[in-house]
Amino acid sequence: MYTRKSFGLFLSYLLVLSVFVLGCQSNQNAAPGQADAPKNGEAAGAANQTVPELKIGLPSDAGPLNIYTGNIDYLTELVFDKLFSPSPYVEKPQPWLAESAQQLDDVTWVVKIRSGIKWHDGKPFTAEDVKFTYEYYRDGPANRHTHHVSEVPHISKIELDDPSTVRFTCAYACPTLERITFADLPILPKHIWENVQNPRKYTDLPIGTGPYKLVEYKADQYYKFEANKDYFMGSPIVDNLVMPVIKDPTAIFNALRAGEIDISARPVPAELEASFQNQANMKVVQTAPLSLIELKLNYEKAPFNQEAFRNAMSLAVDRQAITDTVLLGKGRPGLKGYPHPDSPWTNPNLSTPYDVEKAKAVMDELKLTDQNNDGVRETADGKALAFSLKVPSTEPAWIRAAEMLKEQYAKVGIKINVEVLDSGTMATVSQTRDFDLVIGTIGAHGVADPDQFVMSHRSSYLWNKKIPYPAMDELTKQWMAETSVDKRKEIAFKMQELFNKQPTSIVLYYPEEKFAYNAQKFDQWVESPGFGVINKFSLLPDGVKKAVAKE
Amino acid sequence: MGGSWFSSAFGKKCIQYVLVLAVALTINFALPRLAPGDPLEFFFGESTINELTPQQRQQVEHELGLDRSLWQQYADFMTGVFRFDLGSSIKYGKPVTEVLADRLPWTFLLVAPSLIVSAVIGIAIGAYAAWNRGKRRDLLFLTGMLTIESIPGFWIGMLLIAVFSVSLGWFPSFGAVPIAFTGGGMEYVLALLKHMTLPVITITLATIGGNFLLTRSSMLDTLGQDYVLMAEAKGAVKRSLIFNHALRNALLPVYTHITMSLGILVSGAVVVETVFSYPGVGRLLYESVIARDYPMMQGVFLIITLGVIAANLLADLTYPLFDPRARQRKQVEESP
């Protein structure tokens, strides 16, 4: 009865809807020229001419850039400034929010604050903000900056001498405060942050002093920035930055090719390089990121807790072969060890020799011999030297490197079992230290900042301060007592030498990165060490750009 | 009289669904926590987390509510569900319900038209092919549909992007709306449609094969029935024969299949949403799994569970509308 009618109704409903949908589709087919992405960017990019808009594709999302809810340095620094710039990874950072810094004695510094700077909400920036920020990082909820105020170095007192002068007093010598600490910690507005209850759940858009204001943020979708025309270092040369988050690697390069974005913050993989170089308007720029790919040894476990054994582990790795095979030569082998050789704070004479015979000799001396002739060495009590090597499934190059390590270690009688795990599991593994060996990566903050090298030996990354390490502990003591920058550097060089002889992190290679961009739209990218080309200096006027960027 | 509701077919169904829901919720709670990994790492990035001292870690865990006992978290979750308070997402720092409400419409926008188009076209071609069984056009459709059916969805999506976005530039390759859009209402709708076209086509193509094959085989069954022969003998015209006599009966299993697949309306198309960077529930699920964002995962799983249960309920309740036999059986059962 009603069924026939309702059935007919149902069918015609479906039909109408489908016609509607199809209609819409064909409608769009009929108007192909109106795709919203400009196909051939209007000629722009000449020096000192402002560009109305740039679209930057991001491979990941960093939350609303409030430091406590995720962090990507190059984005955070569009909004926030530091006392000195660009970073601790250069020879001599320039005064930025600070006008000058002066060391009064071994443990005291005074910083004069630049006047006339305003926060994005119009409130004036003051020395109070600096004092608040340093104290907040030190005493508030922990973040990556905390131990650079509370431990290495330890700033015990922060006082205002007058409304524009901040006095920092350290608990022990701090000769590099200006060159490292001041160039590392972004300054927060006191009037906002003193009212934040739980910074981990604080999702308001950030207020900074930086060249760009974040005006819109949609989690996992996009960021939209507007130029801060009153920026104290000069009005930015791009008015608006639109940054869609495109996590899929194929999708982000398709969008770049289709002209929907002007640059991808994801480095171009070697196999796509040529296709971008051949495309009109496109350029490919190479940068040397201050990062490295490392094989981490769990120094808390036997036999990795033995210095001589770690020495043998390092001697057995043919880093050149790994780079040649896995990276097709595009990258540098880790022949200079840890930290990154491009950092001004790294000993230029470090080396990590490859010597199979010596590795074997060292293990023989340790009484790690192959007693049952199965090709794998055993400890005195008969336990085979068989270890698991954990690698994240998201990094094909690392997996190939792991397979090569397996072969290389087999040559010296060590058995490696490669385990490929999802990134969530990998994270827990390295956090709980439930591993023998893992492959991972670490960026500029970890491998170009000398304070972090010391800190990593205390925080458990490279060593744990609760475990005695007499030789290193002695050097650390000297380092902390040293009051001159140069002499401290010398001590740091000795620590690095010691580290690489018996490393807890074996550097496999230093990656290279290439970025493809639409040069017709914008061609003024400059590299800032540790930040790549997408950084605030690229977007600032010529004079400022030259002062801080890498030549 | 009091017990009659519980003993009625509808009441029984409801109790059954409540039970299913309770079990599903418990599994939803347990699964994320059984997986190795925890949210802290994602929250800070690996290098930062390794720099935190154990005390600092504990402090962060406390701030995020991860230090409470499992039972406590379970109790909070179960009571929260009924108050529609699913807690706060660790990754997004916002209430889970708010994030979900933000994503659901986008998923509906993609999946609803895809399912409809896929059903209508799948059924039409399926019926046509069955009627022309064994002829060249039937074979053509059959091989074509089998081919499409066996192509993975993400690959269809990538092909469409390569052709229509990169080469021809007709459609955008990512996102749901143009970012920083300043145009007016009509332009906005147009841009919206433009953004959804390729993903909709992708999901349609990925699901159309199933509808086609099911309709075709069901139709073949029906066409062999005596009553169709009878109708033909009575002199029914071809159109009436196909639509009124054969297809109507053949559609019953297809209808069930389609209603059940409505469940994916909410879970969305994880793969397609990822390929097109579309901000739907599917991609949200993927993101929260990667981030080990327990409250968010629970929220998404809950929505999927509810979606599947609702789709089942819908199929159960509306089936009699289409099949008079089910209706009559019910009357027979319910008569004293």
From TrEMBL, chain A:
Any one of the GO CC terms: ATP-binding cassette (ABC) transporter complex
SUPFAM superfamilies xref list: Periplasmic binding protein-like II
Solute-binding protein family domain: residues covered: 92-460
GO biological process: peptide transport
Lineage: Bacteria, Bacillati, Bacillota, Bacilli, Bacillales
Organism: Brevibacillus parabrevis
Official protein name in the record: Peptide ABC transporter substrate-binding protein
InterPro entries: Peptide/Ni-bd, SBP_5, SBP_5_dom
Alphabetical keyword list: Signal
Gene Ontology MF terms: peptide transmembrane transporter activity
Keyword Methyltransferase included in the entry's annotation: no
TrEMBL record, chain B:
UniProt subcellular location: Cell membrane
GO biological process, one term: transmembrane transport
GO cellular component, one term: plasma membrane
Gene3D superfamilies: MetI-like
Transmembrane segments: 14-31, 106-131, 152-171, 191-214, 254-276, 296-322
A Pfam family assignment: BPD_transp_1_N
Keywords: Cell membrane, Membrane, Transmembrane, Transmembrane helix, Transport
Predominant place of localization: membrane
Membrane topology classification: Multi-pass membrane protein
Domain ABC transmembrane type-1 intervals: 104-315
Database matches in InterPro entries: BPD_transp_1_N, MetI-like, MetI-like_sf
UniProt similarity note: Belongs to the binding-protein-dependent transport system permease family.
Protein name (database record): ABC transporter permease
Organism phylogeny: Bacteria, Bacillati, Bacillota, Bacilli, Bacillales
